Structure formats: C-alpha cells, structure tokens
Amino acid sequence: MKVVAPGRTLEVVHSDEAILVVSKPSGMPSVHDAMQPEQDALTLLSAQFGELWVVHRLDKETSGVLVLARSAESHARMSEQFETREVEKVYHALVRGEPRWDERVIDAPLLPNGDRKHRTVVDAEDGKPSVTRVRVLRRFKGLSLVEARPETGRTHQIRVHLASIGSPVACDALYGDGKALMLSQFKRAYRPTAGQDERPLLGRLGLHALSIEFVHPTSGERVRYEAPYAKDFGALLNQMSKL
User: Fold this and answer.
1) So which residues are the catalytic ones?
2) What's the whole-model pTM score?
3) For the domain 2-240, what is the CATH superfamily, name and number?
4) What is the mean pLDDT of residues 167-179?
C-alpha cells in the first residue's frame, strides 16, 4: 500500500490496530516543522489513517522505517520501550573513505545545539552519554557501506559519531562536505554524454533506517520491521560494486 504526496511516496510496511509502520522517503520531515514547509509524514498519514501518535522520528533527509502509534495506550507502551532502550534499530550508512577498522564502538557524549550552526557536537563535559556500534559491511573505492546500531537516541547521533571518527556520511551538508556522489569521482574514464551534465549517483544524505525491532504493544510478541533501500541508494550500491 502506498500513500502519495507531491513528489514523494510513503510505503506502508505494516498496519494493525496498535501501530503503523511505513517506509519514509528522503526529503520528507517526520512531523510538521514551521521551518520545513514540505508535507510531513505525520500529517499525510493522519489524513488517511486517523489520529496517530509519534513514537520516534527520522531526520528529514534520512530514508527508512518509521513507526507511529494508533492509540494513546500503544504510544505509552512504545515510548517506554524507547526510554528503557529496549528498541533495536539498524541503520545503513554510505560513508566517505575506506575505514581501516572492521567493527568499533563509538562512545562519545553528545550535546545538541552545541555550536553556531545549531549542530550536535561531541562534548565530554556537558554532553549526554551516547553510544553507537558500527561495522563495515562493504568497501568500495573511496566509499564504504557501514551498519550502525545506536544504543542511545540523541539528535543526529549516527551522523555526528561517524563524522567524529573521520567517516562522515556521504552528502551530509551539516557534518560532512555535502557534495553529491558523482560517477566521475570513482571512475576516471567516465565521461557524460556530450551536451549533457553529469547526474549525481546520490545527491542526498546517504543514511537509511533499515530495520526496527521491539515488543508489540498489544500482542507482547517481539517483532521486527524492515524498509528496503530507496531506489537511488540501491542503485548506487549496484553501480559501486561494478567498479
């Protein structure tokens, strides 16, 4: 099932009387933000499914699995699981470079709104405890696919943590260089068709919320939901594997 907005499509992954799970596209805010006039996921979905409660959020530019509660009771039970860190989230990130490490734990306190750009920053004195477990899944030429499992839920946590160890998420304008990924960056012999500009392989944040696992608020069973890669993310991986 799809919920369509101008230029964006939300895929419904799962729906029952307690929760709604969707695959959010990059470029769509999770909730309404006066600073972001684009149609947000909560408003769009509420128009079709009725009143919904926010359980967690994804950054506007992050694609992937998003869970909303369909009752106040379900919201309370889900919120408690997030607070007690019983929810397991897995992200896949395309990062610049080829890390020498295979797995590591990033344990760096984070302080939101910590500089003039209102970014989250690593701050050993005033930051809140923040932990992300990461491992390299694939290495390409100048680019790598990394799995990230955040144990805490700080603002921009994965993006800040990866940038802090020299592996910024690709196309991240806030914590990286913000530059689009072009085929000519990885394939020296590549030339675009005469008279045409080269199109980016990826021009938005290379971060995808792959899966989320928690105890269902009404059945009590442990459940896991997954959102497939967006087309641009998957196409980039396919192209890089050929180089």
Assistant:
1) 59
2) 0.93
3) Pseudouridine synthase (3.30.2350.10)
4) 96
